[in-house]
C-alpha cells in the first residue's frame, strides 16, 4: 500500500485497521485504474466484469431493446415472473467505463433479489460524450418506461431509479430533473455509493486519497472527463442542488473507506432535512466497489440488501 493510504486511514503493523479481512486480501489484485486512458480502462473494466459469477436469471426473461431517442439508447430488460414494479438502472464506471454487458452481473442480481423489472441503460460515455449526454439518455429511458408501462407489464406508479457509483449519481440527477420538469413519477431512488459532488472537499475526499479502486486522482479525472471545461450544475453533481424537497424516498448505501462517503452521508442528511424519507446504510470495513468481491460475506449482504430495499419500496 502507498504512503497516502498509510497516513490517512490508519495502520497497525502494516495492516489496514477496520478493513473487512475478507475484502482486504483481494486489494493487491485490484488494478490501479486511473482513467487517463479511457479506452484501455474500459477493456480492463470489461475483463473484471467478465470474471464475476453470472447471476441467476432462470426465473426471468431478458431482452435487449433500443429506446427511440436522439440518439437511440440501448437497454437490457430483466423481467422476473409476476413483476409489477420497475427500476431504471444505471451502471457504474466513473462516467467513462461500463455498458450493458459489464452491468449484467449486477442488474440480474437486482432483478432476482427484488422481483422488479430492471431496465439497464447503456448510456453514452465520457469523454467522447460529456454531460449531459448520459443524463439525457437515462431520462429518455425513464420517460419511455413510464409511457410504455402497459406494454412492459408494469404499474406506472411503481417506477424507481437507481444505480451504482456514477450511475447512482445520474439516477439522483434524474430524480431532480423529473421533479423540476414535472416529468414521470418516480417512486423511489436506490443509490449505491453514488457520485454526487465534483468538489471533493469533504473529510473523506480529502483524507482517503489512495483508497482501493477509487482514489482522489481517479475521482478527479472522472469528473474532468464528464464535465470537460463546463461548470458543474446540480444535474451533473446533485450535491450542488440547493433545494432537495419533493424528491422520492431514497435508500443510500455508503462504503467506509470511500472518498465519496461523506458527500453521500451529507446528501442523505440534507434529504431528511428537506422532508424526504431516507434509509441510510453505512457498510463498515468496505471500500468503493468492494461489493464486486462476491466471496465476501459483507458483499453478499450488500447485494441482498439492494434487492430487499427495492422490493420493500415497490410493494403495496
UniProtKB/TrEMBL annotation:
Keywords: Hydrolase
SUPFAM superfamilies for the chain: alpha/beta-Hydrolases
InterPro entries on file: AB_hydrolase_3, AB_hydrolase_fold, GDXG_lipolytic_enzyme
Residue ranges constituting the Alpha/beta hydrolase fold-3 domain according to the UniProt record: 87-290
Domain of life: Bacteria
Keyword Oxidoreductase: no
This protein's record includes keyword rRNA processing: no
GO MF annotation terms: hydrolase activity
Protein name listed in UniProt: Alpha/beta hydrolase
Source organism of this protein record: Nonomuraea insulae
Amino acid at each position: 500500500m502507498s504512503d497516502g493510504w498509510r497516513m490517512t486511514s490508519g495502520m497497525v503493523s502494516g495492516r489496514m485497521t477496520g478493513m473487512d479481512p475478507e475484502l482486504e486480501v483481494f486489494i493487491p489484485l485490484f488494478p490501479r485504474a486511473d482513467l487517463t486512458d479511457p479506452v484501455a480502462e474500459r477493456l480492463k473494466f470489461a475483463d473484471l466484469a467478465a470474471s464475476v459469477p453470472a447471476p441467476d436469471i432462470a426465473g426471468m426473461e431478458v431482452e435487449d431493446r433500443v429506446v427511440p431517442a436522439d440518439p437511440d439508447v440501448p437497454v437490457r430488460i430483466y423481467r422476473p415472473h409476476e413483476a409489477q414494479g420497475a427500476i431504471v438502472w444505471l451502471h457504474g464506471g466513473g462516467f467513462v467505463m461500463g455498458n450493458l454487458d459489464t452491468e449484467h452481473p449486477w442488474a440480474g442480481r437486482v432483478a432476482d433479489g427484488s422481483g422488479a423489472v430492471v431496465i439497464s441503460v447503456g448510456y453514452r460515455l465520457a469523454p467522447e460524450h460529456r454531460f449531459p449526454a448520459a443524463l439525457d439518455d437515462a431520462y429518455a429511458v425513464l420517460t419511455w418506461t413510464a409511457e410504455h408501462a402497459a406494454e412492459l407489464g408494469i404499474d406506472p406508479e411503481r417506477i424507481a431509479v437507481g444505480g451504482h457509483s456514477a450511475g447512482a449519481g445520474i439516477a439522483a440527477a434524474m430524480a431532480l430533473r423529473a421533479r423540476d420538469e414535472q416529468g414521470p413519477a418516480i417512486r423511489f431512488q436506490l443509490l449505491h455509493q453514488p457520485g454526487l459532488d465534483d468538489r471533493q472537499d469533504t473529510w473523506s475526499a480529502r483524507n482517503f486519497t489512495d483508497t482501493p479502486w477509487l482514489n482522489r486522482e481517479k475521482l478527479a479525472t472522472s469528473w474532468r472527463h464528464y464535465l470537460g471545461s463546463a461548470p458543474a450544475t446540480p444535474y451533473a453533481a446533485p450535491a450542488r442542488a440547493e433545494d432537495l424537497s419533493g424528491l422520492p424516498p431514497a435508500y443510500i448505501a455508503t462504503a467506509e473507506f470511500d472518498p465519496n462517503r461523506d458527500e453521500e452521508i451529507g446528501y442523505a442528511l440534507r434529504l431528511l432535512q428537506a422532508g424526504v424519507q431516507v434509509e441510510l446504510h453505512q457498510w463498515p470495513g468496505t471500500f468503493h466497489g468492494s461489493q464486486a468481491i462476491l466471496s465476501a460475506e459483507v458483499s453478499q449482504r450488500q447485494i441482498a440488501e439492494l434487492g430487499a430495499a427495492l422490493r420493500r419500496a415497490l410493494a403495496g
